[in-house]
Amino acid sequence: MLLVEDLAVEVGDRLILKHIDLEIKPGETHILFGPNGSGKTSLLMAIMGYPNYRITAGRIIFRSVDITHLPIDERAKMGIGMSYQRPPTIHGLKTRQLVQICAKGGDDIEEMAARLNVDKFLDRDVNAGLSGGEIKRSELLQLMAQNPDLLLFDEPESGVDLENIALVGEAIATLLEKEKMPRNTRPMAEAKRDRTKMGLIITHTGFILDYVPADKGYVLYDGVLSCSGNPSEILNWISDCGYEECARCAMKAN
Amino acid sequence: MRDESELIKRATKAIHKKAPFGKDVHLEDFDAATVVHSYLADADLCELPETEQERLLLAGVDPAQEKRGGTYFQKDTAVVHCSMKEEGIEVIPIRQALEHHEWVRDYYWKLVSVDADKYTAAAKLNLHDGYVIRARPGVKSIYPVQACLFIEKEGLQQNVHNIVIAEEDSELHIITGCTTAAHVKTGLHVGVSEFFIKKNAKVSFTMIHNWADDMLVRPRSVAVVEEGGLYLNNYVSMKPVRSMQMYPTTHLLGPNATARYYSIVVSSPGSEHDVGGRVHLSAEGTRAEIVSRVISNGGDIISRGHMIGEVPGVKGHLECRGLLLNGGLIKAIPELEGRVDGVEMSHEAAVGKIAQEEISYLMSRGLNEDEATSTIVRGFLSVDIEGLPDELKGEIDRAIEASDRDVM
Predict the structure, then answer these.
(1) CA B270 to CA A41: how far, in whole Å?
(2) 3-class DSSP state of A192
(3) Distance between CA A106 and CA B336 in Å, rounded?
(4) How close does chain A come to B357, measured CA to CA in Å?
(5) Residue A86 in contact with partner chain B when CB distance is under 8 A
(6) Which residue, among B361, B381, B385, would best test binding to A if mutated, counting the most A CBs under 10 Å from its CB?
(7) Which among A252, A200, A254, A210 has a CA at the least distance from the CA of A235?
(8) E strands within B85-185?
(9) At what angle do helices B390-402 and B50-58 cross, to 10 degrees?
(10) Per 3-state DSSP, what percentage of chain B is helix, strand, and coil (rounded to 5)?
(11) Fewer beta carbons under 10 A from the terminal one: N or C of chain B?
(12) pLDDT digits (tens, 9 = 90+) for A2-36
């Protein structure tokens, strides 16, 4: 379980997030909406443990351990993984090598890469010259090799072309143990009960909801979680009224 | 013989001539007298003390000579082994060659000026030895020839002269390892090298330096490349050295000739590297690339590059990237000189530190901070060298890998 309690985060000397409360139970996937600059990426970075996202109040509990001040790699070892929107290029390190690092030598990288349609850039430097959509698929490949328990996705579908969108959606569903099961294998309710993977997904378009059934949605507005509820319903509100509507709620909340 | 007396005359005049770059070395501080070593047969090479074999391997020289087209091994001033393993590839000690093969005179001191500085003069006036390696026309070597210049005597001045000739349509790969015995602290290595790459020939020359803390090193090298020829020059230096200065120069004389330089240098506290490459693009369609990756771990590095475009349509690119990990100094000096309209030359230089963002990214994939940093450093140092046989790529990777711990 991930528990975020009354979290405040500063970047530089600017307060980016305040009073964030969040609880993701095993098997649940939550969706984070919000306008540009509202602090969505900052929340993911703070959960992942980036030191420049300084936690000034509150705490983060993961699997009953207070991880508020743990370094990134220890969080990764505990089972937290992230798919980045704009990860850095690493010259001289091949994507294949990075995936091997993620997999700790275990998985069949070729097979996973073919499945995500990224096999042709396995031997290129990490993120070098990749388009937005290619980066997303490369990120998914790394997560697939890493196989974390809590997965943070920063706009996993942005920049992905129509041809690959289903591929990306299904890969995320698989990572979160929410893929469509063939009928007659086992009762669906039982499968749902056994799910342990947790997800937190930032999305603007909501495309991802077509592939990944989500349990809860939030709107992050100006550093505050201004509303929560059924993710599809929230998406409809945003489509109809824009984030103007959130401003009203945020004003009330503040 | 008129040539010979002329060379001696010019060299004698230059015995005190300082080099334009690098700190001035007092030759009188070193002993250039002949050191006697007995010749080693193939089998003897594998019987060398383990510490010595290790030093050789680190410099890319395999005492077992597996996958090698020939071996030249000079210890101090003496040739202790010289053998050829491939048809059409000759490896001859230069003193012997000068004595017995008149043709060597056509190449000897034809590219490097004997009076360039006091070091070239010393290599003329007190030549210890060196190698002549020649690939006959059309011969394509499968394995690299390995050459080792080894210093065992403390305080020695080693004067070496090498000549490499790739005849038309031939292909020749050479790996030169320069190293010292483990106990040696100080010495001076002077190495003159002249490369002749004839029509459509291809030469790769990979030099791995593995010197000692107080060594002074002054290589002097010039190459000419004829029509359609390719010259690949790779340099790897990961270990401390007191002072190393070189500015190898290539003249692309024939149409469509190509030169590519790749240098990988790590400089530790107390070390000084002044390294670079210069290419004259003097014929139509010629191409040049100079790439360097340097890391200062506390040492001083000057990374030079100079391209001179002399005819329209030539293309060149210079790239210098430097990482400062632990103080020290990196000075990147790229120079582009276009002498006519229509040349296309560019450069990029960057000196900085490892981006925290990259470290964090790798940490989020499960590496700790040290592992993430060394992964990034290793990536930084790995350049894809097109046209280099796998065997040599492996040697370069091994050299980088072996000193990885020192870098961190």
Answers:
(1) 45
(2) helix
(3) 49
(4) 7
(5) no
(6) B361
(7) A210
(8) 89-93, 131-135, 145-151, 157-166, 171-180
(9) 110
(10) 20, 40, 35
(11) N
(12) 999 999 999 999 999 999 999 999 999 999 999 99
> Which of residues B381 and A150 earns the better pLDDT score?
A150
Q: Which residues of A touch B361 (CB under 8 A)?
A: 84, 87-88, 90
- State which residue of chain A sits closest to B381, comparing Cα positions: A92
- The verdict on A50 touching B (C-beta cutoff 8 Å) is yes
Our count of domains for chain A comes to: 1
* Residues in chain B closer than 8 A to A52 (CB atoms): 356
List the one residue out of B262, B273, B264, B343 whose CA is nearest residue B307. B343
Amino acid in position B174: I
All residues at 6 or more sequence positions from B314 whose CB lies less than 8 Å from its CB, including other chains: B252, B281, B283, B284, B285, B286, B287, B288, B343, B344, B345
Residues of B in contact with A92 (CB under 8 A): 378-383
Core vs surface per residue A80-106: b (16+ CB within 10 A) or e: bbbbbbebbebbbbbbbbbbebbbeee
pLDDT of residue A110 exceeding 70, the answer is: yes
For A233, the domain range is: 2-253
Separation in Å, CA of B274 to nearest CA in chain A: 24
Q: Which of B249, B248, B304 is nearest to B274 (CA)?
A: B304
As a whole number of angstroms, the distance between CA A84 and CA A140 comes to: 9
CB contact under 8 A, B365 and A76: yes
A200 vs B142, which has greater pLDDT? A200
In the predicted model, residues of chain B with pLDDT beneath 50 are none
Cα distances from B372 to residues A166, B61, B264, in angstroms, run 33, 31, 20
* Token digits of residue B15: 């015995």
Measure B276 CA to nearest chain A CA, in Å: 22
Neighbouring C-alpha atoms within 13 Å toward the C-beta of A157: 23
Mean pLDDT across chain B: 93
Mutate to test the interface with B, among A47, A78, A91, A123 (most CBs of B within 10 A): A91
Task: Provide the percentage of residues in chain A whose pLDDT is more than 90.
Answer: 65
Asked whether the beta carbons of B249 and B222 are under 8 A apart, the reply is yes
Mean pLDDT of chain A: 90
Residues of B in contact with A49 (CB under 8 A): 364
Vertex B206, ends B306 and B188: CA angle to 5°? 80
Q: Give just the sign of the alpha carbon dihedral B58, B60, B65, B71.
A: negative
> Looking at CA atoms only, how far is residue A179 from chain B in angstroms?
24
Between A195 and B146, where is the model more confident?
B146
Q: Looking at residue A110, which CATH number applies to its domain? A: 3.40.50.300
Answer yes or no: is pLDDT of A41 > 70: yes
What is the ipTM, given to two decimal places?
A: 0.94
Mean pLDDT for A150-173 is 92
C-beta of residue B203 within 8 angstroms of C-beta of residue B194: no
Cα angle: B62, vertex B249, B172; to 5 degrees: 40
Nearest to A101 among B358, B365, B380 (CB): B365
Give the best residue of A90, A109, A143 to mutate against chain B (max B CB count within 10 A).
Answer: A90
B192 neighbors B161 (Cβ within 8 angstroms): yes
Give the per-residue pLDDT at B387: 77
Name the closest residue on chain A to residue B377, using Cα atoms: A92
pLDDT in tens, A111-142: 889 888 888 889 999 999 998 889 999 999 99
A107: phi then psi, degrees, rounded to nearest 5: -85, 170
The Cβ-side half-sphere exposure at B237, using a 13 Å CA radius, reads 33
